[in-house]
């Protein structure tokens, strides 16, 4: 019998009971969409060859899309590994200049919505690029857009997921105590041997974990293959589902459930592998509190710094510049100069009371209320979680992690299945309303909000609460008067992260939106598909500005948060 | 309940209550952390739970506070049962206060808010609240720091804020969990003084957990020495020093040497003559363990007389007011003695023992 259990039995039943029911309820709600999907995909297996799963597995387009998914994600992962490890090694282990800004800029692509990344790169290359036109370097009309290809998709997937590799590697590099390197040096190892014998082996699991994360994230990415692949007729699994749903509607739900199951299983296997490796990389280095090593670059310092800045100029600044240029021209294909520059697109976005403004309002409203609701849920949830035995805490965390780990398309299909019929008893139909997107966001981003709060609670000295308890404070009083003020920064950071992710979200809403219920992500996608790339660019520029300022706001909170809460601060 | 408490306190000063711990047992899985421990603590007594780390003293304290349930036995405060396998009064209803090892000051509240929190929960507001907080802060001489945040204070000041928070609600029992463990030597001496002062002024029942025997001896009225979850001895510091029950207690408290003699029985004091005779017996007859404190050893550099022993000086350490000698007896047992001057290492001295205390062997 563990002490926690015996404590449970003896007192405090009322608040414990309430918190426990909340916990169980949330776990069930997190699991419900996935379970519904599983049932749908497997239900008609008795029909043999007629069952949807069998049909899907026998269709050539499934296998083609699967191969496309694996190819683009695999290639993207390699690009991410190269970029991510270069930045991680250089920034963590050497004394390059301007580390904080390098990290911030390198992390920015992860937070920029994928369709915006795709749009900005499209504006950078190709015959219609306003930037190339303005500097007179545009290829002749009619020449192909090089990004409408598998390799184009892979390149952008790589850039978007490189920060994931960077983070995983940086974590394991930071836990590499300088004593390990110094011990090797004093034993007579040269710089190069230190790398081969110590640094790489110790950080290998971090590298593999980062690669796995980049692969999963690319596999579930919808925005990039949708913007670059659909015009070229190149479909990956998420875009295949989107295209089928767009063409045939809910009639093909059963088949789509089977397809979703396929990606879902692939992604979850990747998550399991990655968590296993991350767990192993942390193990064994515990107990060291040493500072990480700083290799002095000497005269190479400026060169290395310049290389990193150069890469950032290419992968971040140039596309964003192209985006800005595109948003300032009156029409596609017009070069930008003093005569043509216009703010018409922005005036259109902000001024016209049409679909554009409605989408902005929808997204802000959805993201804001999801953030508030999740913040309210996170504190009691994390508080109860803290008091669970380790094994159960792991189980619950995995359960609420699933809707976030699954590719957005899978969650969207699962939510449609769950809510396509009106809810029983209250008889409210969620399908086709903003409510459905809202519910999907709650399920998807719960873990994003809970994790910082849980980390902050774990750091809290238990005697702070015990002192209040002896002073006579009951459970609710302690939660409100002691715990809440102390974890408030983490709670706030969690809410901001949810807002940041939800406001740009495309994958889930791409399948769940309906006329009048567009989100910001869907809007950019639709504008670009409708040929209004100037307007799309203007919206995108506004989105990037919003993302960067939210990230800056979070960075300002960082000193008051536990380590690792803010993704771009190691 | 809050009103009743304050009224009672205002007329009677402080409401110290006796604690009765009756065969209390705590198990964590297979491990028995506290094993049938019984103590009777009188109202207003300053009690120390003393033992090496892992002996169960902190678990015992946390059971008193109510942070741990009990698996067997009973804890009573006055006539009220706080804990037994069937009942568990939650910590917030026990009317106790505690000084934590980490101080546990809430970082989001000022010093005054920290101190006032317990009485705020009891519904006190306005001038009475202000007054009580001021009084508590005055008692630990921190009035000037009321509006500071805890982070702006030094270790000793934080400790005193934690103390003030304890006394503001006039609890019937104050628990202290190794409160001096995080302080430097100089500060410890000052804080020991404030604890004694605090106890005298409030008259509260104090239970103090420590692994440091000098701290326990200096502060407590009575000490419970614990080992592996069991109570080894329960007595005043004087009793523990002069009459330790077992050889382990003797080794844990104060300095001294343990010799084997052929005289006496456990719990007996041996006088000079009996002791010297017992020491001179043959080795096989010498079975009784006896404790000889260094202050009961006389050293002479002249040749030994009939009732004295010869010993070789093995080591000499200067301790300021005296020298500490470690001597080797002919039986090859070692003896710790004090002397005004330093004999040469390797020289022979005459040793005379005034008295010795016979102990039980260790279990």
Automatic annotation (TrEMBL), chain A:
Keywords: Cell inner membrane, Cell membrane, Membrane, Transmembrane, Transmembrane helix, Transport. The chain crosses the membrane at residues 17-39, 70-94, 101-126, 146-169, 207-228, 248-273, 303-329, 364-383, 395-419, 425-447, 482-503, 534-558. InterPro entries: MetI-like, MetI-like_sf. The keyword DNA-binding does not apply. It is a multi-pass membrane protein. SUPFAM superfamilies: MetI-like. The keyword Transmembrane applies. It holds the Pfam family BPD_transp_1. Its main location: membrane. It is found in: Cell inner membrane; Cell membrane. Residues 66-274, 360-552 form the ABC transmembrane type-1 domain. Belongs to the binding-protein-dependent transport system permease family. This is Iron ABC transporter permease.
Automatic annotation (TrEMBL), chain B:
Residues 19-253 form the ABC transporter domain. GO terms for molecular function: ATP binding. Transmembrane segments: none annotated. It comes from the Bacteria. InterPro entries: AAA+_ATPase, ABC_transporter-like_ATP-bd, ABC_transporter-like_CS, ABC_transpr_MalK/UgpC-like, Mo/tungstate-bd_C_term_dom, P-loop_NTPase, Transp-assoc_OB_typ2. Pfam families: ABC_tran, TOBE_2. The keyword ATP-binding applies. Keywords: ATP-binding, Nucleotide-binding, Transport. PANTHER family: MALTODEXTRIN IMPORT ATP-BINDING PROTEIN MSMX, OSMOPROTECTIVE COMPOUNDS UPTAKE ATP-BINDING PROTEIN GGTA. This is ABC transporter ATP-binding protein.
């Amino acid at each position: 019998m563990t002490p926690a259990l015996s404590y449970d039995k003896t007192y405090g039943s009322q608040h414990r009971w309430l918190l426990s029911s909340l916990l169980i309820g949330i776990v069930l709600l997190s699991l419900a969409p996935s379970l519904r999907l599983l049932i749908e995909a497997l239900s008609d297996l008795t029909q043999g060859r007629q069952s949807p799963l069998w049909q899907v597995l026998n269709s050539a387009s499934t296998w083609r899309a699967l191969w496309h998914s694996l190819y683009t994600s695999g290639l993207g992962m390699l690009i991410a590994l190269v970029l991510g490890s270069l930045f991680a090694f250089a920034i963590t282990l050497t004394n390059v200049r301007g580390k904080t800004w390098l990290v911030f800029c390198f992390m920015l692509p992860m937070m920029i919505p994928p369709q915006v990344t795709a749009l900005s790169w499209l504006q950078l290359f190709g015959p219609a690029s306003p930037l190339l036109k303005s500097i007179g370097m545009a290829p002749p009309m009619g020449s192909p857009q090089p990004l409408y290809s598998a390799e184009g998709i892979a390149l952008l997937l790589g850039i978007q997921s490189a920060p994931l590799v960077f983070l995983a590697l940086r974590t394991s590099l930071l836990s590499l105590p300088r004593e390990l390197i110094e011990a090797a040096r004093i034993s007579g190892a040269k710089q190069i041997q230190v790398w081969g014998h110590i640094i790489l082996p110790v950080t290998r699991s971090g590298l593999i974990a980062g690669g796995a994360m980049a692969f999963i994230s690319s596999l579930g990415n919808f925005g990039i293959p949708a913007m670059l692949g659909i015009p070229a007729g190149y479909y990956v699994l998420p875009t295949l589902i989107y295209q089928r749903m767009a063409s045939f509607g809910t009639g093909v739900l059963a088949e789509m459930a089977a397809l979703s199951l396929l990606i879902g299983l692939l992604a979850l296997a990747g998550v399991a592998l990655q968590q296993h490796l991350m767990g192993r990389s942390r193990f064994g280095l515990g107990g060291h509190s040493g500072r990480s090593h700083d290799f002095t670059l000497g005269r190479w310092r400026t060169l290395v710094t310049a290389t990193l800045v150069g890469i950032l100029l290419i992968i971040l600044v140039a596309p964003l510049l192209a985006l800005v240029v595109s948003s300032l021209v009156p029409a596609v294909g017009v070069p930008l100069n003093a005569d043509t520059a216009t703010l018409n697109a922005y005036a259109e976005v902000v001024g016209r009371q049409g679909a554009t403004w409605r989408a902005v309002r929808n997204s802000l409203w959805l993201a804001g209320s999801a953030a508030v609701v999740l913040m309210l849920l996170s504190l009691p949830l994390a508080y109860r979680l803290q008091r669970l035995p380790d094994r159960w805490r792991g189980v619950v965390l995995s359960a609420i992690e699933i809707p976030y780990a699954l590719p957005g398309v899978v969650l969207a299909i699962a939510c449609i299945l769950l809510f396509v019929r009106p809810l029983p008893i209250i008889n409210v139909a969620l399908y086709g309303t903003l409510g459905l997107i809202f519910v999907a966001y709650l399920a998807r981003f719960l873990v994003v909000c809970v994790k910082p709060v849980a980390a902050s609670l774990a750091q809290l000295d238990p005697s702070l609460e015990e002192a209040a308890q002896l002073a006579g404070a009951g459970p609710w009083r302690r939660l409100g008067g002691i715990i809440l003020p102390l974890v408030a920064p983490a709670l706030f950071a969690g809410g901001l992260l949810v807002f940041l992710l939800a406001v740009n979200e495309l994958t889930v809403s791409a399948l769940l939106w309906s006329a009048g219920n567009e989100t910001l992500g869907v809007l950019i996608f639709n504008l670009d598909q409708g040929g209004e790339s100037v307007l799309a660019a203007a919206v995108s520029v506004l989105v990037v500005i919003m993302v960067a300022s939210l990230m800056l706001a979070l960075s300002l909170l960082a000193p008051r948060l536990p380590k690792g809460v803010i993704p771009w601060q190691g | 309940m809050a009103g009743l408490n304050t009224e009672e306190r205002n007329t009677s000063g402080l409401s110290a209550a006796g604690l009765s711990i009756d065969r209390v047992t705590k198990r964590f899985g297979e491990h028995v952390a506290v094993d049938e421990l019984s103590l009777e603590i009188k109202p207003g007594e300053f009690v120390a739970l003393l033992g090496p780390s892992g002996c169960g003293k902190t678990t015992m304290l946390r059971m008193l506070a109510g942070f741990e349930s009990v698996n067997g036995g009973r804890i009573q405060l006055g006539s009220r049962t706080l804990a037994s396998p069937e009942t568990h009064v939650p910590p917030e209803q026990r009317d106790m206060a505690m000084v934590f090892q980490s101080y546990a000051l809430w970082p989001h509240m000022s010093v005054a808010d920290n101190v006032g929190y317990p009485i705020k929960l009891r519904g006190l507001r306005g001038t009475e609240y202000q007054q009580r907080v001021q009084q508590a802060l005055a008692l630990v001489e921190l009035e000037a720091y009321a509006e500071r945040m805890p982070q702006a204070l030094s270790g000793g000041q934080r400790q005193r804020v934690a103390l003030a928070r304890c006394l503001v609600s006039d609890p019937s029992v104050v628990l202290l969990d190794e409160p001096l463990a995080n302080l430097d030597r100089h500060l410890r001496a000052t804080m020991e003084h404030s604890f004694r002062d605090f106890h005298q002024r409030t008259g509260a029942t104090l239970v103090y957990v420590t692994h440091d025997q000098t701290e326990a001896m200096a502060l407590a009225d009575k000490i419970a020495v614990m080992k592996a979850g069991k109570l080894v001895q329960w007595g005043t510091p004087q009793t523990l020093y002069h009459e330790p029950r077992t050889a382990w207690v003797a080794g844990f408290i104060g300095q001294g040497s343990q010799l084997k003699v052929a005289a006496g029985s456990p719990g007996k004091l041996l006088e000079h003559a009996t002791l010297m005779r017992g020491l001179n017996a043959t080795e096989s007859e010498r079975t009784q363990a006896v404790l000889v404190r260094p202050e009961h050893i006389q050293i002479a550099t002249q040749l030994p007389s009939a009732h004295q022993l010869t010993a070789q000086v093995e080591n000499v350490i200067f301790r300021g007011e005296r020298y500490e000698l470690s001597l080797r007896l002919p039986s090859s047992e070692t003896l710790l003695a004090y002397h005004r001057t330093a004999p040469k290492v390797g020289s022979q001295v005459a040793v005379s023992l005034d008295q010795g205390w016979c102990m039980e062997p260790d279990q």
